[in-house]
Amino acid sequence: MDPLRRSPSPCSPQASSPESPPCEMLGYVGIEAVLDQLKIKAMKMGFEFNIMVVGQSGLGKSTMVNTLFKSKMWKSTPPGLGGPTPQTLQLHSVTHVIEENGVKLKLTVTDTPGFGDQINNDKCWDPILGYINEKYEQYLQEELLITRQRHIPDSRVHCCVYFVPPTGHCLRPLDIEFLQRLCRTVNVVPVIARADSLTIEEREAFRRRIQHNLKTHSIEVYPQKCFDEDVNDRILNSRIRDRIPFAVVGADREHMVNGRCVLGRKTKWGIIEVENMAHCEFPLLRDLLIRSHLQDLKDITHNVHYENYRVIRLNQSHVLPRGPGWVNLAPAPPCQPSSPGLTKVCRWAQDNSDEDS
Amino acid sequence: MATNTAYMSSPVSDNEQKKKGNTRSLTMSGHVGFESLPDQLVNRSIQQGFCFNILCVGESGIGKSTLIDTLFNTNFEDHESSHFYPHVRLKAQTYDLQESDVRLKLTIVNTVGFGDQINKEESYQPIVDYIDAQFEAYLQEELKIQRSLFNYHDSRIHVCLYFISPTGHSLKTLDLLTMKSLDSKVNIIPVIAKADAISKTELQKFKIKLMSELVSNGVQIYQFPTDDETIAKINASMNGQLPFAVVGSMDEVKVGNKMVKARQYPWGVVQVENENHCDFVKLREMLICTNMEDLRDQTHTRHYELYRRCRLEEMGFADTGPESKPRSLQETYEAKRHEFYGERQRKEEEMKQVFVQRVKEKEAVLKEAERELQAKFEHLKRVHQEEKMKLEEKRRLLEEEIIAFSKKKATSEIYQNQPYAAPGGNPRRDKDRKKEPGYRFEFLCFDVRARAASGGQKDAEERVEHGRPL
């Protein structure tokens, strides 16, 4: 994946209206200097990215985050020595500012320890959905203020990485339930965790079965097919979609292999190199999340998921017929608003009122 | 693996520092790769395209269209506008320009008829209204429940080029007034048009005079931003050279061995792109190459936010009510809703009352009319009756007369018939009778009438028939 590939977005290029004829310029004007201006502005302002990792404990979520950003975000809990498993699902969020070549990134990682760990995992997705919606709500409130800030701080979850345990069979009911609900609210990227316990053939078979499961239950993971803008995007994204879910291995220790220092896991039968495409697909995940699709993740969150949330929210406590300038807002109800389907044109909530909590 | 040691000690902005106390900076032990983020952003913008709207304010014939043509190196439109418009109108035209892979949707708004009227009191109002209308359209779109902001064709004015005529003395009152009313709504860049009419020394003095007048009157013109190191120096120096003295021309003249854009005079050639001759290159540089993004940014974050705040406050909303902050929006709405409903209810009652009142009145009037009509009808009927009786009376009299007359006639006929019975009577009379049917006919007619009066119509008809063959 080349890093400079055009990131697709739900924003369609503006079609020229009949009154805007294309004009030929007879010489150099300097319009393309606006790109540099954009870059300067972006570098000055810095970027924000919020990622959430969801999965059962012991699947290597914290290690994966550390590997992705090559730093110690968290202390990854050594197996067996972790504290008592939390009784309820808690969400831990940690923020860091990292810089690379003048580009500042404010990264927020949210972990979900205790997910799927209880005996009865019914409705374990509720706290997560509640957290995501709470972030949307914060942004909405900021947006509705009379005196707004110059730059509204964006704490909405841009991407949710879902860790599928490497059973080798198919998606479990918990996975399916969770993915169904979450795909409508946030961009979800499923990955096969701890893939070093599967051989290459097993991985492929597992992947195919998961893809089949996703299709049967009409779960649209990122990159969503309906947001492909043009042919290039579709080609590129189908290549990605073909490999989803990525089989990844996380490691934050370095070892010497053939004189090089690589990140990897050392076992009795060899060293699994994390960044080696032959060993695992971690580079694919990293490229998708950071190098090529980060802006796109943010765009889809802002233009699609957030707008969907906003529509539902603004229609909720609403008795009067609406006028053009009226925005009715009631305090957020204790239950989550039922989210609509994932379409560009937002469907109303009535066909989803039977599902969801 | 090489270690990257770049890390900052302070986070990005103060806001974030206040809100997230646990923001720490982190060192990374390897190359992660998010330095391509600005490129991703740029790629997305390229795909989306850019949008830029320029408003040109100035008198007719001062060179607005020519300057825009020269700035963007195209021929946008050819015809000149007339000087005889009764009001100032704004004409907007949108063009699609493309340079390498950057697509720009350029909208030029021209004031037509500005400064042409005899009475210029209302000249600046249409301009202010237009700018407000664009803000309003954007606000409406933003407040909609189902909105599509990323698809929205942004028509807000990003920069206003104000053309000052090169009198060499000072600002005109109209200019001052217009700029004062526009400075809080749009970024104003004043330019001295047709700068080839002023000499160098006069130009310097003119510029100083203009700037001092603007400052003393409190007009805020757009200052090029000086907070970023890469462009701070050049922007600062440009700020000192405002307003730019420009010359526009699309005609090409051969100078030396090149064709340059210039205006040719008998005494020389004014080259548009020569920095010694005019400030056109500086204007183009500042407007397009260096600060286009900042102009759009300022429009959105400063002017639009100000408009939005004023508008929402006008509609009655406030952020901090007497109670806690986030609730007040809801409360304002509830209060407004009740008020609105109460008002509506009251108005409805009022209207009902008025309606009932009116109906009653109308009914009364109608009843009155009916009564009058009835009376009239009675009266007429009576009159008619009387007439009828009179006529009956007359008829009776007439009939009596007729009967009397017919009696007389009968008796006179008896007397007449006697001379007829004598032999050798009056053959002449017979002949006369035959020859003069008219007389006889008349007689018969009279007869007919007499008969009709007494009711014997059949006889009369027979008589008439008999009379005819004569």
From TrEMBL, chain A:
Q: According to its record, what are the GO cellular component terms? A: midbody; perinuclear region of cytoplasm; septin complex; sperm annulus; spindle
Q: Which Gene3D superfamilies match?
A: P-loop containing nucleotide triphosphate hydrolases (3.40.50.300)
Domain Septin-type G residue range list: 45-316
| Transmembrane regions listed in the UniProt entry | none
Chain residue ranges for the region called Disordered: 1-21
Keywords from UniProt, A to Z, are:
Cell cycle, Cell division, Cytoplasm, Cytoskeleton, GTP-binding, Nucleotide-binding
Q: What is its main location?
A: cytoplasm
Offer one example of a GO biological process linked to this entry: cell division
Q: According to its UniProt record, where is this protein located?
A: Cytoplasm, Cytoskeleton
Q: Where is the composition biased (Low complexity)?
A: 7-18
Q: Supply the InterPro entries for this chain.
A: G_SEPTIN_dom (IPR030379), P-loop_NTPase (IPR027417), Septin (IPR016491), Septin3 (IPR008114)
| Pfam families the UniProt entry points to | Septin (PF00735)
GO MF term set: GTP binding; protein homodimerization activity
What CDD domains does the record point to?
CDC_Septin (cd01850)
- Indicate the family of this protein: Belongs to the TRAFAC class TrmE-Era-EngA-EngB-Septin-like GTPase superfamily. Septin GTPase family.
Query: What is the name attached to this protein's record?
Result: Septin 12
Q: Which organism is it from?
A: Catagonus wagneri (Chacoan peccary)
Higher taxonomy = Eukaryota, Metazoa, Chordata, Craniata, Vertebrata
From TrEMBL, chain B:
Query: What InterPro entries does this protein map onto?
Result: G_SEPTIN_dom, P-loop_NTPase, Septin
Superkingdom as given in the UniProt entry: Eukaryota
Q: Which residues form a coiled coil?
A: 352-408
Q: Where is this region: Disordered?
A: 1-25, 413-434
- Domain (Septin-type G) spans 48-314
Q: Where is the composition biased (Polar residues)?
A: 1-14
**Protein name, UniProt field:** Septin
Give the organism the record lists: Catagonus wagneri
User: Mind giving the lineage of the organism this protein is from?
Assistant: Eukaryota, Metazoa, Chordata, Craniata, Vertebrata
